[in-house]
Specification:
By secondary structure, the protein is of the alpha+beta class. The chain has one domain: Gamma-glutamyl cyclotransferase-like (Hypothetical upf0131 protein ytfp). The chain is built from seven helices and seven strands, in the order αααβββαββαββαα. The chain has a three-stranded antiparallel β-sheet with strand order 1-3-2. A two-stranded antiparallel sheet has the order 4-5. A two-stranded antiparallel ribbon has the order 6-7. Helix 5 crosses helix 7. It is globular, with a radius of gyration of 17 Å.
């Protein structure tokens, strides 16, 4: 089941995820879902533009319309596979891991500008992609870019979610990513795409580089 603009526009993606493994995903309450989106839109309206920080698949497959992009760094947070995935990139018997932004360190990624006049449409698609179960929490933070400070929407990890884990041993991450597979594909394919996407944007992350090497070895893809 590919993640596509069509499946997010008609909201069929949500139902497919619910059907994949009944009982394994709890949807975010609609009121909280919409309130979180409106809060970001209100911030964007104050500054007159809407940028989103891409640190994972938004880098190579944003799905939403993008009118500009630039390299960006988020201080105070770093990438980490810290959310268990019993669906999508894993199964209840062999869960994979979802990537998130956790506290500490820095993260190099890409700032994506959403088109003026299309914020309602594009953020609805974006929220259906990122906020389906509330494993992330949107925040309005300042990125560092070559052009100067840039306020942007950033999807951080949600420590209150039951799938979030503050500590997952590195070896456990390697095995979960190497073995996890669900309707969206394998967890390791996501990691490989991430490593490739970072390289194509001339970005680096030693944590991802190490995982990429060790997961390939564990999965026999080296």
């Amino acid at each position: 089941m590919p993640l596509s603009r069509d499946s997010l526009t008609d909201d069929s993606f949500k139902q497919k995820m619910l059907d994949e493994a009944p009982g394994e995903m709890t949807l975010m309450e609609e009121g909280a879902f919409e309130a979180s989106r409106r809060a970001i839109l209100d911030k964007a309206e104050e500054v007159g533009e809407l940028w989103v920080f891409g640190y994972g698949s938004l880098i190579w497959n944003p799905i939403v319309e993008v009118t500009d992009r630039r390299p960006a760094r988020l201080p105070g947070h770093s990438r980490r596979f810290c959310v268990w995935a019993p669906i999508g990139r894993g199964s209840p018997d062999c869960p994979g891991l979802w990537l998130a932004l956790d506290e500490g360190g820095t993260c190099d990624g890409v700032a994506l500008r959403l088109p003026d006049g299309k914020w309602e449409e594009e953020t609805t698609i974006l929220w259906r992609r990122e906020m389906i179960s509330g494993v992330y929490r949107p925040a309005w933070l300042t990125l560092e870019t070559p052009e100067g400070p840039l306020p942007a929407c950033v999807f951080l990890s949600n420590p209150e979610h039951d799938r979030y884990s503050p500590v997952i041993r590195h070896e456990e991450q390697v095995q979960a990513i190497a073995k996890g597979e669900g309707s969206l594909g394998t967890c390791r394919a996501y990691l490989y795409d991430l490593a490739d996407g970072l390289e194509r944007q001339n970005l680096s992350d030693p944590y991802i580089d190490r995982l990429n090497q060790e997961v390939r070895a564990a999965a026999g893809d080296a």
